[in-house]
Amino acid sequence: MNCSISGEIPEEPVVSKNSGLLFEKRLIERHISDYGKCPVTGEPLSIDDMVPIKTGKIVKPRQAASIPGMLGMFQNEWDVLVLSNFALEQQLHTARQELSHALYQHDAACRVIARLKKERDEARSLLAQAERQMPLSSTPVSSNAAVSGNGKRVNEDEELGPDGKKIRQGISATVISELTDCNAALSQQRKKRQIPPTLVPVEALESYTQISSHPLHKTSKPGIISLDIHHEKDVIATGGLDTNAVIFDRSSGEILSTLSGHSKKVTSVKFVARDDLFLTGSADKTVRVWQQSDDGNYNCRHILKDHTAEVQAVTVHATNNFFVTTSLDNTWCFYELASGLCLTQVTEASETEGYTSAAFHPDGLILGTGTSEALVKIWDVKSQKNVARFDGHVGPVTAISFSENGYFLATAAHDGVKLWDLRKLKNFRTFSPYDSETPTNSVEFDHSGSYLAIAGSDLRVYQVASVKSEWNCIKTIPDLSGTGKATCLKFGPDAKYLAVGSMDRNLRIFGVPGEDGSMEA
């Protein structure tokens, strides 16, 4: 019989009462003193549980006086080696079992991922097929209009002028009266306007940090280049290089709807504060009017194809009944929202540059546009006349924002941000936060007109002051996308947060840490 540890015939054999296994006495006693359990079964074991077995005496040869010491030393080393080898064998067996289990889990995970990808592709295919088969008869159009096969509203009695351009009906006296009444009402309200007590104070804004990040767009074409916020619903819309617009609920952290239909990047997105309407402009030269249905999804009501080049900006009038689009084709269009009808398309024959940005004045009778040739043009909406122009920028004017008080205009371009006094029609301050190789991509006043935010290689927030007072930078936020290019930003209600889009696919929310109830990414 052999020892269960060494595999050799024991000199002093002992047997375990619990397992009945045979061991060399000195080996098992050393193992029990080290581990306190059976080396084979792993059960608790003590020296009292070992029963010695009587065997015949083994006669050993007579040895020299120094040899026994050497043999004893060798014997001890051998005992340690045998115990160590036994422990390694047990560890190897355990590792093999764990590896086998891990390989099984990995194989199962791969099968699940493959199945989910297949289901996702099938769902996308069914969705695309459903969109192609969606009936267009539900699109509301006027009595003298029809819908073409691609969903665009086309006037049957539409006429072309001598130059081959469409003849527009123009902005009627009724529309001008509506715009004037809105202007009078808003101007009267603005005189009594006070900064809301719920506005975030400067001290809180100085502590802004990223509180959430949400991957909304595709990884194949990352980049968020337009953004808007519905303040009443606290819903954020983004337009991306992946040709999609995404409607995102900030409070729940969930995507409400993904709007597909454009064939190129979505350059502008705008909410309309009535009837759950939503507008998108794209580099595919079209503008789409969407409306939310009862199931929460957005259906395309109109596809507008009045421009012949990339649509760069969409801005909604304060009445929420009209909107303007600007394009690189050197025109801007004034639309009636309900019908999707282009009332007028304005161009300057002497100019060749395209329009890259646009915004309505808060009172609604003035339109500001930026051009690809670094000009800022101010238009009288009623007469569609260019009443003022500002120069001094370098590069295309990427963004325009009017202050709520109606006195200030902020414009962004490659060389930075310029502030204009609309009462005296002159530039009174210039911010050049970045180097000559870094353009400023976005500029935005908050709704109260108390703060101004700039986006480029980082984010900067300034406290709004008067023409003669200093506008202090109260917060600088680094670009966390890793792209070095923040493309668009918007203040949330009462400046409680700042929504930022960059050249990755993530929407980032910056606010006061610990005071935000939205879903943490």
From TrEMBL:
A GO CC term attached to the entry: U2-type catalytic step 1 spliceosome
Keywords in alphabetical order: DNA damage, DNA repair, Immunity, Innate immunity, mRNA processing, mRNA splicing, Nucleus, Repeat, Spliceosome, Transferase, Ubl conjugation pathway, WD repeat
Source organism superkingdom: Eukaryota
PROSITE patterns noted in UniProt: U_BOX, WD_REPEATS_2, WD_REPEATS_REGION
Ranges where the record places region Disordered: 133-165
Pathway: Protein modification; protein ubiquitination
Biased composition (Polar residues): 135-147
Catalyzed chemical reaction(s): S-ubiquitinyl-[E2 ubiquitin-conjugating enzyme]-L-cysteine + [acceptor protein]-L-lysine = [E2 ubiquitin-conjugating enzyme]-L-cysteine + N(6)-ubiquitinyl-[acceptor protein]-L-lysine
WD-type repeats, residues: 259-291, 348-389, 390-430
GO terms (BP aspect): defense response to bacterium; DNA repair; innate immune response; mRNA splicing, via spliceosome; protein K63-linked ubiquitination
EC number per UniProt: 2.3.2.27
Location of this chain's protein in the cell: Nucleus
Record-linked InterPro entries: Prp19 (IPR038959), Prp19_cc (IPR013915), RING-Ubox_PRP19 (IPR055340), Ubox_domain (IPR003613), WD40/YVTN_repeat-like_dom_sf (IPR015943), WD40_repeat_dom_sf (IPR036322), WD40_rpt (IPR001680), Znf_RING/FYVE/PHD (IPR013083)
Location of the U-box domain: 1-70
Subunit structure of this chain's protein: Homotetramer. Component of the multiprotein assembly MOS4-associated complex (MAC) at least composed of MOS4, CDC5, PRL1 and PRP19 which is related to the PRP19C/Prp19 complex/NTC/Nineteen complex identified in other organisms. Associated with the spliceosome.
Identification of the protein by name: Pre-mRNA-processing factor 19
Gene name of this polypeptide: LOC111431962
